[in-house]
Write a structure and sequence with these properties.
Number of helices: 1
Strand order of the largest sheet: 1-2-3-6-5-4
Oligomer: single chain
Number of strands: 12
Largest sheet: 6 strands, antiparallel, barrel
Amino acid sequence: MTNTRKYKGKWFLVDFDVDNKPTRGSEAFDGVLKFDSFDGAVLTLRCRDIVSAKLTERVDVFLGETDKGQVTLYSCLNVGHGIGRGSTYRYTGDFVFEGGFLYDPSASLFSTLYSELHNLSEWVDKSTIKISRDEDNNVTIKIDKPDSLKIRIDDPTLLKLRFFSEGPEHTY
């Protein structure tokens, strides 16, 4: 099963004001960001001009005003360019941040990283699955999920992992 997301809207580069503070750039590019767990994040931009000088091979940050709110795409690499009625640029991004603009995501500090892993225990540890049969020949399958893990990455950062199993306990 893949986790797929799609964001349509206007995309901007980061500019700097007179005080050298980062701001959203004035030039907007129409585009669609697609994310799935196999291909990662791919942003396709459509430009009116044949070539936009600001769209270089590497772009640190794209800021998106999308149908799902503000999105930041960080650490981007140009992986394709097409010319037709205008130009099309394709970028892959290493990180997608939903819910706001991060002008410099590398400066962001997170004290806790949180992730949920679904159905991992069924693949990693078969002993967590217990199958029993009663006198009426009914089969019961129970899955014991592992305890949550806490892993200290460095002094301020803690990684927390929680495990889930799909569906309730079933008896057949």
